[in-house]
Design brief:
- The complex is a heterodimer of chains A (384) and B (421).
- With 384 residues, chain A is mainly α.
- Helices cover 73% and strands 2% of the residues of chain A.
- A two-stranded antiparallel ribbon of chain A has the order 1-2.
- In chain A, a hairpin with a 2-residue loop joins strand 1 and strand 2.
- In chain A, helix 2 runs antiparallel to helix 15, helix 4 packs parallel to helix 8 and helix 6 runs antiparallel to helix 11.
- Chain B is globular, with a radius of gyration of 22 Å.
- The two termini of chain B are 37 Å apart.
- The chains are: A mainly alpha (384), B mainly alpha (421).
- The interface between A and B is large, with 43 and 46 residues.
- Chain A: GO terms for molecular function: transmembrane transporter activity.
- Chain A: Keywords: Cell membrane, Membrane, Transmembrane, Transmembrane helix.
- Chain A: It is found in: Cell membrane.
């Protein structure tokens, strides 16, 4: 929570005036408030005390164990959102994050269970494996788009389904799962990764804080740096804004599409690793599904900026973690959290649009007023 | 299916043609495919692929995909991309099962459509009125509607445990009528059981079409045909499609673009809702969380596969439905299908050779040889492979045919009134 904040203040305050910051913050705040109102109405209709539900969530969210859980989950969401956002920045809609992370995680889990090297080689090896697998899988969609003109939206949807099938094909006893059924449960899963693969973590009063949090922050910093301080980032944003203009200024759009898709997929490959290397230590059917779609939502909410998605990842993680307490304390259905997340995503895009129009109108009025003042001054001069 | 269906590849890999498929050619291809299935059935002694059970299962699996695809077709023809079909389908499954239990399944069907249409209204509001990116709105809807449905069922299904409801399952509704043509059905079954060459196979397919046919399947087929006539043969349809091709031009001719987009997206939601209601009223008799299993996306894929045309859409849905139903049935059938694919690839190779396309001919023959080898060396096909088949086929077809696919020109673009370019 604390680390991305000063960066946000510095970079924003340095470049924009107060009114633009206010307008920029207005949209997400508006969206969260609106979705809270909708959820209050929904809770009230169904005969639950809405403020009691918020109280339960708030209490857990401010407790130290809740905060650690929130940070851990936000780490995963942040990586997922960064993967989606990287594509979005170039107008590439990578819906395939879901399949990319499953494949990346499965291969990393397999390699981790087969290889046992010293930690400083083992962990990078697993990270690279996951990124390679995710990146290669995503680049299929990139290649299809560039050379055959297949929309990445539809090809990544297909690739998601095929990835699920590949998981089903490989995750069987004798291939990726141990022959004698791993563990006490009869669920099919890979063997646990070797001891040396375990990522560092920090013990706090509230529980174990995953060391991957720092990797997520590093990804955010690298993302920001790449986009704003490198030639590649400039080309990427230029291509996202206008493909023809980018082409005219000498950007190889085809290569940009493939690269952006591969990077997006490589980041997606990392999504499952916090869980793999810090929590479950194996890949199986119990792996949380839907992270890819959550990542897309978080990225949209954070406007695809590395700082914005940090806040939205924290918000989504908080809602999830605090929401899990709802059924335990006071018999509230946990699913209200899903409604809240859905309304936030829809409200925020609408709110951004409304704020944008309002800003445009204000700008027009300002310019209009200035022009009128100039005209009046000129008239005065003439008459004088 | 219509004569306007543009050049398409036959799913099983039958000869691809550059020119338009005309009725005689289509009929010839169907006859050829039948002959192939019959010959392989006779040679291997496995008649499972043309059995009436297989045919009706495939038909049943194809219906929700086709209806979701039809929803996508309406919306995209008016220029609005609808990724939210999945969420609207969930609304359909939920409202369909719920009202189907409370009132009766017929009203449930209508309620499912209404639920989907509400989702469509939301999508239209966000994309048309507020001018937000279509895909963003769709993703939001896919998040929101399943959330609302899961929330509501957690609260209300508790009161219906005695009626068979579970934590995430609605009480079961009564079934909708099924059509079985009495004399024809048993007669065809007799012929089918004799395993006569070709005759029994045709009887099996026809038998599948007249035995235990749900009325919803008939309704769906009628809607598909009706959509073609409404969209391509009426003034209303022309105006609607003009909004997807060039909204600015349409506006200059006095078409109320917003109105048509709203109608199209709401209709799109209603079709997706019907697809959902089919799942919860016909395929099953209850609602369950996550029962759509991504069929909304598959419907979208079927529509793109079908080149944004109703006939092609029906073919795409048939292909997906056929493979979808294969995974539920005997694994032997799929193994026999390998042989059919191999022969079809060889025939395709010969056809390419005749057209002097030597590279493609070699590739086809090589693929055919590979599949034949696979058939010879194995006894069964792994289930995940069967599940993945339609997706792989779609990707391959998109990769091969995408230059010939033509989406509506202004599809996915944000249109604002009076902003002529």
């Amino acid at each position: 929570m604390t680390s991305p904040k000063p960066a946000a203040k510095r970079s924003l305050a340095g470049r924009f005036d107060a009114e633009r910051i206010l307008l920029g913050l207005a949209a997400p705040v508006l969206a969260v408030l609106l979705s809270a109102v909708i959820c209050i109405i929904l809770l009230a209709i169904s005969g639950k005390d809405p403020f009691g539900a918020f109280q339960v969530m708030w209490d857990y969210g401010t407790a130290s164990d809740g905060q650690v859980l929130t940070l851990n989950r936000a780490t995963v969401y942040y990586i997922a959102a960064a993967a989606a956002a990287f594509g979005f920045r170039m107008n590439l809609f990578n819906i395939g994050v879901e399949g990319q992370y499953k494949l990346g995680m499965m291969f990393a889990a397999y390699v981790g269970s087969q290889v046992d090297l010293p930690s400083f080689i083992q962990i990078p090896l697993l990270l690279v494996t996951a990124m390679m697998v995710g990146g290669l899988w995503a680049s299929i969609a990139g290649l299809l788009k560039v050379y055959r003109g297949v929309s990445e939206v539809i090809s990544t949807i297909m690739l998601n389904a095929i990835a699920t099938a590949i998981v089903g094909l490989l995750l069987v006893p004798g291939i990726f799962a141990p022959k004698t059924g791993g563990g006490s449960s009869n669920a099919i899963q890979t063997a646990p990764v070797s001891e040396s693969s375990h990522f560092f973590s920090i013990e706090t009063a509230g529980g174990t804080l995953w060391g991957f949090l720092f990797l997520a922050i590093a990804i955010g910093v690298a993302f920001q740096f790449t986009l704003n301080r490198t030639r590649f980032g400039f080309d990427l944003r230029a291509t996202g804004r206008s493909e023809s203009a980018a082409k005219a200024s000498g950007v190889n759009v085809k290569r940009m599409v493939i690269t952006a898709m591969a990077v997006s997929g490589a980041l997606a490959g990392l999504i499952g690793l916090p869980d793999l290397l810090q929590n479950s230590y194996y890949f199986g059917q119990s792996v949380q599904p839907g992270l890819g779609f959550i990542g897309i939502s978080v990225a949209l909410l954070g406007r695809n900026s590395p700082i914005g998605i940090a806040f939205s990842a924290l918000l989504f993680a908080f809602l999830d973690v605090a929401g899990s307490r709802l059924p335990l304390r006071g018999d509230y259905p946990q699913e209200i959290v899903l409604v809240m997340q859905g309304t936030i995503v829809i409200c925020v895009v609408v709110a951004y649009e409304l704020v944008r129009r309002y800003g445009l109108k204000r700008q027009q009025q300002k310019v209009g007023a200035e022009l009128a003042a100039q005209a009046a001054a000129a008239k005065k001069e003439v008459s004088a | 299916m219509s004569t306007a269906t543009t050049a398409r590849q036959k799913p099983a890999g039958a000869p691809a043609k550059k020119s338009k498929l005309t009725w005689p050619v289509v009929l010839l291809l169907i006859a050829g495919a039948l002959l192939l299935f019959a010959a392989v059935g006779a040679a291997t002694g496995n008649h499972g692929l043309t059995a009436s059970g297989q045919v009706s299962a495939a038909l049943g699996s194809a219906v929700p995909i086709a209806m979701a695809g039809l929803g996508g077709l309406w919306s995209e023809r008016a220029g609005v991309v609808n990724i939210g079909l999945e969420g609207m389908m969930v609304a359909g499954t939920f409202c369909g099962a719920w009202v189907g239990y409370l009132v009766n399944p017929w009203v449930g069907l209508l309620a499912g459509m209404a639920g989907g249409a509400l989702g469509g209204l939301l999508h239209a509001l966000v994309t048309v009125t507020f001018g937000v990116d279509h895909i963003v709105s769709g993703v939001g809807i896919n998040l929101l509607i399943p959330g609302i449905c899961a929330y509501v069922n957690r609260i209300y299904y508790k009161d219906y445990v005695a009626a068979g409801a579970g934590a995430n399952q609605s009480p079961s509704a009564e079934s909708l009528p099924q059509i079985t043509i009495p004399g024809l059905s048993t007669g065809l079954r007799d012929i089918e059981n004799h395993h006569w060459f070709l005759v029994s196979d045709v009887a099996g397919i026809l038998g599948g079409l007249v035995t235990n046919l749900s009325v919803v399947i008939v309704i769906a087929a009628a809607l598909l045909v009706a959509s073609y006539f409404v969209l391509w043969r009426t003034v209303f349809g022309l105006r609607l499609r003009s909004c997807g091709e060039n909204p600015t031009a349409a506006e200059s001719l006095g078409v109320n673009v917003y109105k048509y987009k709203y109608i199209a997206v709401i209709a799109s939601g209603a079709f997706a809702g019907l697809a959902g209601a089919y799942l919860s009223l016909v395929a099953a008799h209850f609602y369950k969380d996550g029962m759509t299993q991504g069929r909304g996306f598959i419907g979208l894929a079927a529509m793109i596969f079908g080149n944004w045309m109703p006939g092609g859409l029906a073919m795409g849905a048939g292909l997906f439905g056929f493979t979808d139903s294969l995974q539920l049935r005997d694994a032997d059938n799929v193994h026999v299908l390998l042989l059919i694919v191999a022969i079809a690839m060889f025939l395709l190779g010969l056809w390419q050779l005749y057209r002097r396309k030597f590279t493609t001919a070699t590739i086809s023959a090589a693929v055919g040889g590979g599949v034949a080898l696979w058939y010879a060396l194995t006894d069964s096909v792994q289930r995940p492979l069967i599940v993945a088949t339609p997706y792989v086929i779609t990707l391959v077809v998109l990769a091969l045919a995408s230059q010939r696919l033509r989406p509506p020109k202004a599809d996915g673009q944000i249109y604002r009134k009076g902003q002529a370019k």
